[in-house]
Structure formats: structure tokens, C-alpha cells
Fold 3-phosphoshikimate 1-carboxyvinyltransferase.
Amino acid sequence: MKLHLSGPSDHNLKSAIQITGSKSETNRSLLLQALFPNIAIRNRSNSDDADAMKKGLGVRSDMVDIHHAGTAMRFLTAYFASQEGKDVVLTGSQRMTERPIKVLVEALKTLGADIEYVNNEGYPPIRIHGKKLAKNKVSLPANISSQYISALLLIAPTFENGLELELIGKITSVPYIKMTLGLLNQIGAKTSFGKNTIKVSTVGHVSPMEMVIESDWSSASYFYSIVALSDIGSEIKLGSYKKDSLQGDSVISELYKDFGVETIFLSNEIVLKKVQDAKQGIFECDLSNAPDIAQTIAVTCLGLRLGCNLTGLHTLKIKETDRLEAMRAELSKFGAEVKVTDKSLHMAPLSDLVPEVAIATYNDHRMAMAFAPLALRTSFKINDAEVVSKSYPDFWKDLKTLGFQLQEL
Ligand SMILES: O=C(O)C1=C[C@@H](OP(=O)(O)O)[C@@H](O)[C@H](O)C1
Ligand SMILES: C=C(OP(=O)(O)O)C(=O)O
């Protein structure tokens, strides 16, 4: 589906939107629920990735396809490896077969798992023969993806003597590891996170309990961008959010102050309000703790005619696409001067946007959603707009309620 996008006629926005639960929290909770069936989940994500996780956990055949879902790939690898008697081949989309999994597989093998690569060493698909994992201590590199660490931590409560991880190198995407530990605490696991050691205790039994998932902050980021690009006085209310979030992307409420966006925390909602013009100059930020909002921020800067230096982006090359290269190519179509390294993105301020360009999305939901707010500045096209369903299937519907004009081409 190719969409032509233009902004609302009135740039003074007033709207309220309900977003579903965080996909990261949902996929962790679904795994914990499979291990401890007394857990009930409220406000789960309606994303494709959450569906892939749910289906994968319930599968009866010996083939599991998780499509594009990185968390489902990594979390299910750990889950199946620890399920005695389970024999499955775990695979995904073409892109998933290019996203590395060796660090996790090696760590699981050290713990006693039986896993083979079906085609290419280090990459899905993998064949897993589930076993009771006997060891309880392992070291692994921590600078490639935090999902490997979260995957191991999530199965740890079922180990006889808990689990101790030694993390090697600079730890990336730390808030996602803390999110995992936070959810483990909710089911009664004792956890500790020292400088480079994480410990999780065994959990024998979980009494009936409810996990209430906060709505997705990465999805909220697109509305921060919209408010930043709209008139002073604009307000969008988003539910259901809270101040003490488990999601690292909630840092956006601080970052967007520089773009003139204030966040008002109500009991179960946030109100994003454009209160002043953006701070002028080059926007600088290290996003190693919040990699999923890098694309949103780069496009906001483009729309506000600001330059940016975004660093800490070393994980972006192995996500749904090489996001650094994809951003360079697509920002450039609007006329921006962009340089990328393998861990950073640098953009010079641009005064006039080239209109009516067609943005490619590279099977990456965040490419489509990050660029959409720019329709407040110029009209353009988005190719393969349906990619948004990976994390936010209602995105285009919600954009229409704000008055954005979407025309299917
Ligand atoms: O654990 C998680 O839920 C996630 C961790 C992050 O990945 P990396 O740790 O690979 O950066 C993030 O980009 C991804 O969208 C979700
Ligand atoms: C990187 C992402 O997801 P995953 O790694 O889980 O595929 C994302 O949603 O931006």
C-alpha cells in the first residue's frame, strides 16, 4: 500500500489517542505466562510481533515462524531450549535470517542447550532440541543486543539454582534489561544488577496475579514528533502511561523539552503540549539506551530545520533494516545533508524540504512512522505503508483522527 500524506489543515491540534501495551513488555509477559500460567495479562500489545510471540508459544507443530519479530526470535530461542522434549525449527522473515543470534546460542549451549544452525552459522533458522538446562552461570558479550540477555533472564526463574550472567564489554540498551528484571520482580524473583553481573533467583510458584502493561512509549514517540512540528498550544492526550515507566523510551518526555514539548502526567494518561519554539542549534544526543526513537528524533529535527548529531546507534545496523543507511537515503530525498558512521547519524540544518518525494520503508515499521509527522511541513508519499503493523497496526487510523490526510495510491 502506497500512501500520499499531507498534514491537517489546522496545525493547532487537539486530540486524544489510546495506544495499546508496550510490545517489549507484552512479549516478556507472554513468555512468563507460558512458564507460570497463573499470570493474567492486561492491555497487551495488538502488534504483529506480539501475535508472533503468542502463536510461537502455543505452537503444536515443529516449525515456528516469527516473521520480523526480533524479541520473539530471541525469547523463543531461550524458551524452547529450556523445554524438555520440545523439538522445533525456529525461523523468521528473510531479514531475520540476517540478524545475528550466535551470542545467545553460544550462551545457551554453555548452559547445556542443544541447538544447531539449519543454514548459516550464527543466524536463524535454528533447530532446537529442548532440554533441562543444568548449569547456572554464563558469560556473554553485552554490546550487540540486550535481547540476548533478556532472553536468558526470562527463563532463569525456572532454573533449579537461578542464573548468574557475567556481561562482557559495554552494555547496550540497558533499560530493556532493567525492564526484564522489573517484570521478574513482579512474579517474585529476586534480582540484582551489579556493574557487569546480573543474578536472578529461582521462582517455585506464582500465585494468581495480573500484569498490567503500560502503553508503548516507542509508539508515543511519533505523537511527540507531531506535537513538536505543530503550532504552539497544540495538545495530544495519550493513554495509558505513567511517570515511573519500565520503558527506556519514556526518556522522550525529557528530550522533547528541547523541541518545545511539555509532558503533563495525569493519573493514567499523558498530555503532550507544544508550549514554546524549539531550542535553536544542533541537537546532540547519545541514544544507546533508547535506540528505537533515533529515527523519530532525526525526522523531528529535519521538520524543525535543526541539525543533529545522534550517537550510540551501533545496534541500528542489525535491526529490521540497516536503519543508519536507510535514514541517510530517505532524509537525503528531502534535500538534507546527512552523514552516517556505523554508530552515529549527523544531519545539517535544512531550510526548504523537497516536496512530493516517495519514502521507502525497507520492511521497517519505524521508517514509515518516523517520517509521517513530516506531513505537517510538506506533502509526500510513503511506500509499503502497511509495515506499521509490526508494532502499531492502528497507526494510520490514529493519524487520521488528528486530521492528517491519507490517500491510497
Ligand atoms: O528487549 C526489547 O524488547 C528490545 C530491545 C532493543 O533491542 P537491542 O537490545 O537489540 O538494541 C530494542 O531496539 C527492541 O526494539 C526491543
Ligand atoms: C528493533 C525493533 O524490534 P525487534 O528487534 O524486536 O525486531 C523495533 O521495534 O524497533
Observations:
- The pocket of phosphoenolpyruvate (ligand 2) is lined by residues 69-71, 292, 319-320, 366, 391 (CB under 6 Å).
- The first strand starts at residue 3 and ends at 6.
